[in-house]
Amino acid sequence: MSIVTVQLGQCGNQIGFEVFDTLFSDSHCSQGLCSKKENEAYQTSCKERFFNEQENGVLVARAVLVDMEPKVINQTLSKSAHSGRWKYDQCACFCQKQGSGNNWAYGYSVHGPRHEESIMNLIQKEVEKCDSLSGFFIIMSMAGGTGSGLGAFITQNLQDQYSNCLKMNQVIWPYGTGEVIVQNYNSILTLSHLYRCSHALLFHENDAIHKICSKLMNIRQISFKDINQVLAHQLGSMFQPTYSVEGSFHYRRNPLGDLMEHLVPHPEFKMLGVRNIPQMSENSLAYSTFTWAGLLKHLKQMLISNAKMEEDINWQVRAPLSGLSALGKMSFSKELHFNTSIANLVILRGKDVQSADLGGFKDPALYTSWLEPAHTFNVWKTQRAFNKYEKLATLVSNSQFLVKPLDMIVGKAWNMFASKAYIHQYTKFGIEEDDFLDSFTLLEQVIASYCNL
Amino acid sequence: MTQSVVVQVGQCGNQIGCCFWDLALREHAAVNQKGIYDEAISSFFRNVDTRVSGDGGSISKGKICSLKARAVLIDMEEGVVNEILQGPLRDVFDSKQLITDISGSGNNWAVGHKVFGSLYQEQILEKLRKSAEQCDCLQCFFIIHSMGGGTGSGLGTFLLKVLEDEFPEVYRFVTSVYPSGEDDVITSPYNSILAMKELNEHADCVLPIDNQSLFDIISKINVMVNSEKLGKTVKPKSLVTSSAGALKKRHEKPFDAMNNIVANLLLSLTSSARFEGSLNMDLNEISMNLVPFPQLHYLVSSLTPLYTLADVNVPPRRLDQMFSDAFSKDYQLIRADPKHSLYLACALMVRGNVQISDLRRNIERLKPSLQFVSWNQEGWKTSLCSVPPVGHSHSLLALANNTCVKPTFMELRERFRRLYKKKAHLHHYLQVEGMEESCFTEAVSSLSALIQEYNQLDATKSMPVEDLPRLRVAV
User: Fold this and answer.
1) Most exposed of A17, A111, B4, B121 (fewest Cβ within 10 Å)?
2) In what residue span(s) does the Tubulin/FtsZ GTPase domain sit (chain A) (predicted)?
3) Which pLDDT score, from 0 to 100, does residue B230 have?
C-alpha cells in the first residue's frame, strides 16, 4: 500500500526532500547486509510505499508540494532533479507569490479556502496513482504560517474528503527561542486543530535534533540541512519496510495502519515521538560495534527517563514497582521524572535481529494501567540493515514525553494572550479571541490527560 | 515572488533613493552574472524593451534589456530630481515616474501636506496605480522621506493616507530621517510633530534614522580606514564605505556616505525576501513578528559589521563580534540604547555564510544582557539569507522594537513645546487652508499617547516575570 506525502511550507518542503532522498538512497544502498533476493523485496516494498515508477524506470516521489511562495519549491525541485536518482513530479506542486507571513490565520483562513480546490485536486491526482492507499503523511512545521495554518486546513479537508484514510502529521516543534516570535500562538492553533482531525501527530523537536547534531554527529557549524538529515534518518528508519511475520521475507503492507493500530489505542492520546540508537557520524560508525542487548538496554532507559539521545540518559530513573496503585504511580513518575507510556513500538534493523531480547519493554510497570499488556508493546524487525548502520533500533512511542514542552508552549502563549499582544494580527483574518480560548482549553485537556496516565 | 515600489519624497528621500537604486543595481549585477531577468530582480525592477514605444514594452522573462526602477519620485523642487535625471542613473527612471513642482514647500509641513497634497493627489494616485499595475503581486511600498522639512514630511505623510485608502492590503514601510538637535531648519520640530501623527496612524512599520547617528558611524568607519593597523584590511569598495563606488569616484557630497547606510538598510531588509536562504523571511513577517500592538511600530535598526575583512571562511570570533556590535548603542541608526531599555521584540536578519548554529549560539550568549517584556521573553525572529552583500562575506541587520526609541520622541516633543510656547513661525502654518491650531494640539497629544505607551511598558521593566494562572480543566 502507498503513502501520499503532502509537504507544506519552507520547513515541510526542505524536510520532505531529505526524507525521500534518505528512503531512496537507503533502498539502493549496496550495504544492506542481506541476500540479493531479500534486498529486492525490500526495494520493491519501499517503492510501493513512497515512489511511482515512470516508464523509463525513474522513480517519482508520491508527494504533493505546497508553499505559498515560489522560492523554496523551486529550490526543492531543482535539488531532486540534480540528484539524478529520483525526482518530484513537476505537476504535483502548488505555489503562490506571497507567503503567509508567519500568520497562522492567514494560512488557515485566507490561503486555505482560496486554494482549497487546486490543492485537493493535486492530492487526488496523486491518490489516483496509487493501487491502494494506506494514508497521508503530512509534513509541516507549527511555528510559521503556511505549514501550520494551511497545513491544519488541508489536514481538515483530507479528513472530510478521505475520512476512511489514515492521516499522520509530521510536526516540527520549533526551537524554544529564536525562530518566530508568534510561534507559540501558531503552535497552539495548529495543535488544537490537528488534534481534532488527524489520527496521529509525530513530533520532532528542533532543539533535540540540534543537540543530536552537535553531540552525536559532531557537527560544528550546524545548518538546517544537517538537522533535516537527522530527522529524515529517523523517519526513514521508521517507515522503511519490515517483516510482517518474523523470519519471512514478506514485508508489512500497511505501514500507517499498523503504526496506528499499535500506537494510538485512544483518540485522546495521539502524540508520538521517535528515538534512534545508535546515532553517530559515518566516520565514528566505522569504528564501532554494538550488541543488541546493549543497545536495547540504553534504548529502554532513554524511554523511561525521557532522553532524546543516548548522552542524555539519566540512569537514576527506575520503573515503579508493579504493586503500586495508580495514584502512587502518578506521584512516583512526577518525583523521579519517570516517563509513563501508553504504547511502544520498537523497530530493529540489521544483523542478528532474531537474537534480540525485548523483554525489558514488556514490563507492565512502564505502561498506563488501563491498557491490556498485550496491546502496549510491539516489535517490527528486518534483517536488512538501514542507511549503513549494521544494527539500528528505533523506538516509536506514545508517552508523556511531550507533556513538558507542550506545557511550556501553552504557558508562554497564555502569558502573551493575557496581554493581548499580537492578537490584532489574527483577528484581521477572522481568528478571534474565542478561537484562541478553544485551543487553550483543548490543549490543557490534552496535558491533563497525559499527566494522569 | 512579490514586488515592492519605492516612493521617494523630498530632497532627502530622493537622495537616499538614488543611493538605494545604485546599490540595488550593483547587488543584482553581482548576484546575477548571466544577465537573465529573474524573480529576484523583478522585486525592485521592471525589464523593459525600450524599442517598443508606449507601455507595452515590459518583458517578464529572458535577457535583461533595460531595467526600470519600481519607483515614484516626488519633489516639490526640481533640483535633486533633475540631478538624478542627468546623472548615471537616468536610464533607470522615466519621466512617467516623476512628480515635481518648482516652488518648494518652504520647510513647511502644512504646504507639503495640505497645499501640494490636494494639488497633486490625482497625479500621485495615477502614478502609484501605474506602478502597482506593473507588478505581478505588489506586497510593499517603501516610503523614504525626512521628518524635518516641508515636502518629505508633509507630502510624504499625505501619501501614506492615500496609500492606505487605495491599497489597504499593501504594506507601508516608512524610512524616516529625524532631525538632529542642531538642525538648520528652524521649523523642524513643528514639521516632525505633525508628521509623527500621520506615521502613528497610517504606517505599518517605521524605521527611524537620525543624521547624527549616521554621521557618527561614518566617522567611526573613517577612523578604522585611516588607522594604520586596519587600513590595509578594509575593503575600499564594500558598499558601506564607498560612496556610490562604481559610478562616482569619490564622495562628492558629505551626505553620500550617510545615505548609503540607509540604502544598505533597505537592501538588507529585503534581501531575505529577494534571495534564497535556509530560513526565509518575507516582508510580511516583519510586521507580524515585530509589531505586537498596531501603534508600536517603530523599529530601531543597526547594521553590522561596518566593514568586513576579505576572508572567505567565517572565523567564529569575528562573526560573534558582528552580533555583539548590533546591540551596542554605537551602531544604532538612531541615537538609542537598546541594551538598557526594554525589548518588545527583536529580529536578526543574517546574510552570507552563517548557519543556524551560529545564530543560536549568539542569541544564547546575548540574551542574558538584554531585557524583554514579560509576555515576550523569547521575542526573537531570525532569518538566514545565503546571498551576502557585495564585497562582504556576511552581514547582520538587527531590528528592535524597543522602548529606547522613546527619548527621541520626548526630545522632539520638548523642542516642539519650546517653539510652540512662543508661537514662533506659527502664522506660516495657520495661513495655509485647512490648518488650525488644533492640528498642532492633536499632533502633540498623539505623540504623548505614544510616549505614554512606552512609559507603561518601561514601568514593567523592574517587575518580576510571573506566569499567569492557567485555564483549569476537569479531569
Assistant:
1) B121
2) 47-247
3) 46
The candidate with the shortest Cα–Cα distance to A409, out of A203, A231, A177, is A177
Please give the C-alpha separations between residue B363 and each of A78, B285, B369, B379, B380, in angstroms, as whole numbers.
33, 19, 10, 11, 8
Q: Do B357 and A178 touch (CB under 8 A)?
A: no
pLDDT at B390: 85
pLDDT band for position B391 (50/70/90)?
confident
C-alpha cell at B196: 509623527
What mean pLDDT comes out for the span B198-226?
89
Instruction: Write the burial class of residue A56 (CB in 10 Å: 0-12 exposed, 13-18 middle, 19+ buried).
Output: exposed
Closest-CA residue of B relative to A15 is: B278
| Chain A contact probe: residue of B278, B280, B342, B396 with most A CBs at under 10 A | B278
Q: Which grid coordinates belong to A113?
A: 479556502
User: What is d(CA B286, CA A134) in angstroms, rounded to the nearest whole number?
Assistant: 40
Average pLDDT, chain B: 88
Q: Which residues from B are below 8 Å from A420, CB to CB?
A: 293
pLDDT surpasses 80 at B474:
no
* B239 has pLDDT over 60: no
Instruction: Find which of B38, B288, B467 to mutate to test the A interface (most A CBs within 10 Å of its CB).
Output: B288
**Interface pTM (ipTM) of the complex?**
0.89
Give mean pLDDT, residues B37-57: 82
pLDDT tier for residue A323 given thresholds of 50, 70 and 90: low
As a whole number, the mean pLDDT across chain A is: 92
State how far the Cα of B183 lies from the Cα of B163, in Å rounded to an integer. Answer: 30
Q: pTM for this one?
A: 0.92
What is the rounded distance in angstroms from the CA atom of residue B241 to the CA atom of residue B264? 11
The answer to whether B359 contacts A178, with C-beta atoms less than 8 Å apart, is yes
Residue A191: enclosing H or E segment and its boundaries? helix A183-197
* Strand pairing class (A271-277; A133-141): unpaired
**What stretch of H or E contains A396?**
strand A391-399
Query: In whole angstroms, how far apart are CA A38 and each of A33, A41, A353, B411?
Result: 10, 5, 15, 79
Set out the domains of chain A in order of their start, with CATH numbers: 2-273 (3.40.50.1440), 276-400 (3.30.1330.20), 404-451 (no CATH)
Beta strands in A188-264 (DSSP E): 200-205
Q: Between chains, do B363 and A441 touch, taking CB under 8 Å as contact?
A: no
Distance in angstroms (rounded) separating the CA atoms of residues A274 and A202: 8
